[in-house]
Amino acid sequence: MIHRIVHFALNQRFFILVLVSFLVVGGILSFERMPVDAYPDLSPPLVEIITQWPGHASEEVERLITVPIEVQMNGMPDLETMRSISLYGLSDVIMSFHFGTDKYFCREVAYQRLSGVDLPSGVTPGLAPLSSPSDLIYRYVVQSPDRSPQELKTIQDWVLNHAYRSVPGVADDSGFGGTTMQYQVLLDPAQLYSYHVTVPQVLNALSANNANTGGGFYSQGGQFYYVRGLGLVRDTQDISNILVASHNGTPVRISDIGRVEIGHAPRLGEFGFGLPRGDGHSTPLEGVDDGELIVDRPGGRMPGRADPGLHLLGRVPQVVGQARLDGV
Asked: Distance from the CA of 145 to the CA of which of 9, 44, 177, 269 falls in 20 to 30 A?
């Protein structure tokens, strides 16, 4: 058999050269179009549905949220397995599909079926960011010697978070640490009693006096003038001037029954960080300058000088791209 193949190749040299040329061209094209990934994704398409219901036990979450979602998601096209976990105030349903299924198709079908789930009032399920279990996680730290943790938390949530999400290849940006700023109304029980005002009245007044409304338009001199009511609060003074009730013909405002302060939400824990040393252990951060951005990666760290929330915006794509390359 081998002698026949060799004899045919020697007699049909032109055909063999053409065949080899096609093989070489096809190999070059395949090599150029072949996706090269240092960490190939070997996991099937996943869709994760996360639902928060604060203040409720895991039994209630399982019975009123997790089970209805599972029943609604049963029978999805190419669905392979479905797993779920119910915790205190949290429901997590994870669905895996057959290999080769379009991940965007899976998310679209899951999102459509979520609209038919009967859930408790005020509960809104959501899909986890499009990512894979084999994805990489990069960490950065923003700190400043003259800014409070609450200010850095605000910069992270409203500036850096949006900037990182706009970078191609970044699935999500989650912040840890710091305190969440709140506008807090601290009521005086003695003043509430003297003005005969209840707490539900205060809550209703705060929610009803924080919105803009439309008032239509009126015509004058051949022109239309649009009318609208501006009621959104802008600072603590606006909150203090909100009318709550009327006592003996005298208006009762928030400032009469309490005070308005800028505070923070109750903390449920604290978050610490450290930098890895060469021996595999971690050491606390020391000597970090104002606005230094640190991205953990194998073999060390990559700093990027930036003022938090301001000059960093222009460097976000370069920082993330360099971190991805160095991580590989």
From this structure: 269
DSSP labels for 82-116? EEEEEETTEEEEEEEE-TT--HHHHHHHHHHHHTT
Model pLDDT, residue 274: 61
Amino acid residing at 113: R
Domain boundary among 246, 264, 282: 264
Q: Please tell me whether residues 215 and 323 are part of one structural domain.
A: no
Candidates 319, 276, 306; CA nearest to 143 is: 306
pLDDT at res. 316: 53
Of 19-23, 222-226, 235-239, least confident by mean pLDDT is 222-226
Q: What is the CATH number of the domain that holds 211?
A: 3.30.2090.10
Q: 53 near 65, Cβ under 8 Å?
A: yes
Domain boundary among 64, 97, 127: 127
pTM above 0.70, yes or no: no
205 confidence band (pLDDT: 50, 70, 90): very high
Would residue 5 count as lying in a domain?
A: no
- Same domain (yes/no): 62, 109: yes
Describe the strand order of the beta sheet including 126-127 as a list of residue ranges.
79-87, 90-97, 46-52, 126-127
The 3-class secondary structure across 118-157, one letter per residue, is: CCCCCCCCEECCCCCCCCCCCCCCCCCCCCCHHHHHHHHH
Least confident among 92-101, 220-229, 296-305: 296-305
pLDDT digits (tens, 9 = 90+) for 249-290: 889 999 999 999 998 888 877 776 665 555 544 444 333 333
The reply to whether 272 and 169 lie within a common domain is yes
Residue type, 104: Y
Instruction: Provide the domain limits for residue 175.
Output: 149-179+268-327
Nearest to 69, CA basis, from 131, 102, 111, 105: 111
